[in-house]
Design a protein that fits this description.
By secondary structure, the chain is of the alpha/beta class. It folds into two domains: 4-21 and 72-195, 3-Layer(aba) Sandwich (Rossmann fold); 25-68, 434 Repressor (Amino-terminal Domain) (Orthogonal Bundle), CATH 1.10.260.80. It has eight helices and six strands, in the order E-H-H-H-H-E-H-E-H-E-H-E-E-H. It has helices spanning 25-31, 40-45, 49-68, 76-85, 98-107, 132-141, 155-164, 188-195, and strands at residues 9-12, 89-93, 119-120, 148-152, 167-171, 183-185. The chain has a six-stranded parallel sheet, with helices on both faces. Strand 2, helix 5 (98-107) and strand 3 form a beta-alpha-beta unit. Helix 3 runs parallel beside helix 5 (98-107) and helix 4 packs parallel to helix 8. The longest helix has 20 residues, at 49-68. The mean pLDDT is 90. GO terms for molecular function: hydrolase activity. Keywords: Hydrolase. This is HAD family hydrolase.
Length: 203
């Protein structure tokens, strides 16, 4: 297996991976009357159209507020710029809305690294943990899914990566999914230091 630093096609989860985690999913479920054990997007997808539309509207408004207040996760900007400087392809795979993902990337100062086609949101592909978004990235880049690295902070990210055949990297304080992750780091800064220690730590 090639080392991480030799990989050239990187896909990142957004919220909680490249940004500091702020989503309160328990609050979202309460506001939208979604049972605690149910996936939020899956629950809404199964609702009658009118009911689903009302809940999506609330979710979009809530997520827009969060996106507008986004703060980069430790080392995220430096990691992305190190990868970009090395000539790597960069992509986003998020369960958020495409436009809100663009807003988030602008807020943390890396929108220049991600043209619109580099972002796959919940309306462009079946959301994670389904691998469809990763397969779409691979197709757009003209590479085999096994060439991808999927970086995220949740089991959904790792499940999607495994299902696509990508290398999986967990970033976070506690890895609850060790069987699904090929690598694990405390945060993006630790990942950057492990693979590109010569890159600037600014950001």
């Amino acid at each position: 297996m090639r080392s991480l630093s030799a990989r050239r096609h990187w896909v990142f989860d957004l919220d909680g991976t490249l940004t500091r985690a702020v989503h309160d999913f328990a609050l979202i479920r309460r506001e939208l009357a979604i049972p605690a054990e149910q996936d939020i997007l899956g629950h809404m997808a199964a609702l009658p159209a009118a009911q689903a539309a009302a809940k999506r509207a609330w979710l979009m408004a809530h997520e827009r507020e969060l996106a507008a207040a986004s703060v980069p996760a430790p080392g995220a900007v430096a990691l992305l710029r190190a990868l970009h400087a090395a000539g790597c392809q960069l992509g986003i795979l998020t369960r958020n809305d495409h436009a809100l993902a663009q807003l988030t990337l602008a807020e943390i100062g890396v929108q220049d690294l991600f043209p619109p086609q580099a972002i796959v949101g919940r309306d462009e592909a079946v959301p994670k943990p389904h691998p469809a978004g990763l397969l779409l990235h691979a197709a757009r880049w003209g590479v085999a899914p096994g060439e991808l690295v999927m970086v995220g902070d949740h089991g959904y990210d790792l499940e999607a990566g495994r299902a696509a055949g990508a290398m999986t990297v967990f970033v976070g304080a506690t890895n609850a999914w060790p069987a699904l992750s090929d690598h694990a780091y405390a945060d993006c800064e630790a990942l950057r230091q492990a693979c590109w220690p010569e890159a600037t730590a600014a950001g």
